[in-house]
Task: structure prediction
Amino acid sequence: MLCQRLKDQYVQNWGASLENLSKLEYYRKYKTYFCQEDYLNSIVNDNLRVQLCRFRTSSHMLDLEMGRFASVARDCRICKLCSLN
Result:
């Protein structure tokens, strides 16, 4: 009973922290509830799994994320590798 109560409190705090950080806007689009994602067990290629985790947690080197550190406005952070912006 105590374990379930602690888990419920953690999940509630987790959800609230997602709402309070603008950096996690894209993460909120993909992660809607607290659980271990299936891809962590189903993707056998370690490199692919790591890259997907980095994308989902915004710890990647894409211009969308790196532009934050260069003070580039969010709507100006576009992909330079393709024409899809």
Observations:
- The first helix runs from residue 2 to 20.
